[in-house]
């Protein structure tokens, strides 16, 4: 009989081997209210009680309860199941729910093509959602539920950190701000009352951002310019006091990042600053966060563009240097983000 320590590598390897099925079992237990039924039952719930509460067959309830016990989402004492902390997270934690939906709705089918994406440098898995060459051209037209899950994933992180970053930008009293890759305009709308903003992005996202600006009464303060951001022959609008790139540079390969930063630097006014706000895997406060960011890199490989990833801070600082920028300030923002404040070197 092998000891628990001796079995640990076997456990890790076989959790990976069965991860696709177990992932869907956990999500089914959440969506079919199995975890909730167990949580709400005083003193735990039997298979029969869960089946009756959820209108599932005794077979279906039993399969899900047993596999959730194996995943340490539930525990069983005699014939009654009780919710464990990890099960509570699957049922209630916003981040965990958003991660599960993002992977189920956006990435799961496309992940099958990860190996081909790694070999070709193209997001081969994107064909399961769109015929576009990269996901950024397709965001406004993704099929549901992928579209909703993608934007919930993206906004979950930006919505938390934008209010914290706002005063860091405004302290220099900029008279203009260029939001490169402004997406649906979340940061632009937050800043628009204080400084005129110009958003650069693909037409689909820009149309959404402009509609959001109009709805907020900021159509005179927030403008948009359609641009293929990877057309490096096209300069950014000049004389900008602030050039903003949030959760943006991770969407590109290193050569493109250098070119984008260089164009951003060339667009600055005499005393302007370029701001890079992003999540770096080596700057996280716990291993769970770093693990999630490494997993997010695989989304970029298979689904986004085949060449980008979540970078380390030294990777991005080296790109800034190649683009002729000096990192003037290196600031921690919120739980997981870093703000690099750059000036021309």
Characterize the overall form: elongated
* Oligomer designation: single chain
Helix and strand composition category: alpha/beta
The CATH topology annotation of the largest domain reads as Rossmann fold
Q: Give the CA-CA distance, first to last residue.
A: 64 Å
| Beta-strand content bin | 15-25%
Number of helices: 15
The chain-level mean pLDDT equals: 96
Judging by the overall fold, what is the CATH architecture of the largest domain? 3-Layer(aba) Sandwich
Largest sheet: 7 strands, mixed
Helix proportion = 40-55%
The first-level CATH class name of the largest domain: Alpha Beta
The strand order across the widest sheet is 5-4-3-6-7-9-8
Overview features:
345 residues, alpha/beta, Arc Repressor Mutant, subunit A, Rossmann fold, 7-stranded mixed sheet, two-stranded antiparallel sheet, 15 helices, 50% helix, 17% strand
């Amino acid at each position: 009989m092998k000891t628990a320590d001796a079995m640990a590598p076997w456990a890790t390897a076989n959790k990976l081997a069965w991860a696709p099925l177990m992932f869907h079992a956990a999500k089914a237990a959440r969506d079919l209210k199995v975890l909730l039924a167990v949580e709400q039952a005083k003193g735990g719930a039997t298979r029969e009680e869960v089946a009756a509460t959820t209108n599932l067959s005794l077979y279906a309830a039993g399969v899900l309860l047993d596999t959730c016990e194996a995943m340490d989402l539930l525990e069983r004492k005699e014939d009654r199941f009780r919710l464990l902390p990890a099960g509570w997270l699957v049922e209630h934690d916003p981040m965990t729910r958003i991660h599960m939906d993002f992977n189920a709705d956006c990435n799961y089918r496309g992940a099958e093509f990860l190996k081909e994406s790694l070999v070709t440098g193209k997001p081969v898995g994107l064909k399961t959602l769109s015929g576009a060459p990269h996901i950024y051209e397709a965001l406004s037209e993704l099929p549901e539920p992928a579209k909703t899950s993608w934007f919930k994933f993206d906004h979950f992180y930006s919505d938390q950190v934008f209010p914290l970053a706002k005063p860091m930008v405004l302290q220099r009293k900029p008279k203009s701000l260029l939001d490169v890759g402004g997406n649906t305009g979340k940061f632009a709308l937050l800043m628009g009352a204080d400084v005129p903003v110009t958003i650069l992005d693909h037409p689909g996202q820009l149309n959404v951002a402009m509609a959001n600006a109009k709805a907020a009464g900021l159509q005179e303060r927030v403008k948009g310019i359609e641009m293929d951001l990877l057309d490096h022959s096209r300069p950014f609008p000049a004389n900008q006091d602030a050039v903003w790139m949030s959760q943006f540079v991770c969407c590109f390969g290193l050569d493109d990042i250098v070119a984008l930063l260089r164009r951003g630097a060339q667009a600055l006014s005499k005393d302007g600053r370029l701001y890079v706000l992003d999540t770096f895997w080596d700057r996280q406060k716990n291993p769970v966060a770093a693990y999630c960011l490494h997993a997010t890199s695989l989304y970029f490989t298979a689904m986004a563009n085949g060449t980008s990833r979540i970078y380390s801070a030294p990777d991005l600082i080296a790109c800034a240097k190649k683009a002729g920028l000096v990192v003037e300030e290196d600031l921690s923002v919120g739980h997981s983000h870093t703000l690099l404040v750059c000036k021309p070197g």
